[in-house]
Amino acid sequence: MVYFIIVTYNGIAWIEKCLSSLQFCDTDFKAIVIDNGSTDGTQKVISQFPDVIFIQSEENLGFGKANNIGIAKAIREGAEYLFLLNQDAYLYKGSVKKVIEMFAKDEKIGIISPIHYTGNGKNLDISFYEYAKQAKTPELMGDLLQNEYKELYKTEFVNAAAWIVKRSVYEKIGLFHPIFDHYSEDVEYVYRMQENNFEIYISPYLSVIHDRTDSGKVSFFNPYLTIYRMFLMSFLGFGGFSYFSIFVRFVFYFLSSIFTLRFKNAYLLVFYYIKSLRSLYKLKTNQYKLAIEDY
Fold first, then answer.
1. Is residue 200 a contact partner of residue 244, using CB atoms and an 8 Å limit?
2. CA 164, CA 180: separation in Å to the nearest integer?
3. CB 218: neighbour CB atoms within 10 A?
4. What share of residues in the chain are helix, strand, coil (percent, to 5)?
5. 51-89 pLDDT tens trace
6. Which sign, positive or negative, has the C-alpha torsion 91, 96, 98, 103?
7. Which of 292, 11, 265, 77 is nearest to 175 (CA)?
């Protein structure tokens, strides 16, 4: 069975569409919603869907930790596949059942992502467009343009707005790393998964709407900050990364981002440096939990 895991935070503008879209799922499923302390009435909308398993957090746990709670609960209840879906994403076209069947093609398949469209359902989400380019996902764009495509396309990365993940991935490498409060937890997870011989794919046989107004907007500091934190985890013996691969990624992302630095954003460097030191302390004192049994 597949379990949808949806994290909400002040998502009243989207959550009804998100949950309503699950009716188009063509295989047996359950849905778990974890609310991160919404104050806009999101919970009232969720209550209109009595079949949803609802978990209320009194504080904003962030994307990764809130997902961890839902994932762990789903696995304890017997989930074989977990469909992580953003509150602002909706099932659109295609077959969830068919995509799940694709996992049997290769034991190395860890994550399959659907195609991501913008709110109008016609254009590719701008971030997804970057992931789908030839350099990162060979052949996909050309095949989509010709409307003749394969079941699966191996890719370097797709964000976690809509991931179908098989249970064994979580059992082998653990959950999202709580060192990341918001954003970048999916980047770290994909790197960790790839280091453990799993791969991420895109399937055109399923698509979602990612209905966000700031599509593709990424703060200038996120890429190299993410790699920096991953380097810290590797240095301390967490995550299973090789030092060389992390260093190469760090240098690449830092150099590609440094030209976007602005003096007015300089305080963010100080803020995130202090935050990283705090994260370092929490790593050393084993305050971060990755195992399913910890949730």
1. no
2. 21
3. 13
4. 45, 20, 35
5. 999 999 999 999 999 999 999 999 999 999 999 999 999
6. positive
7. 292
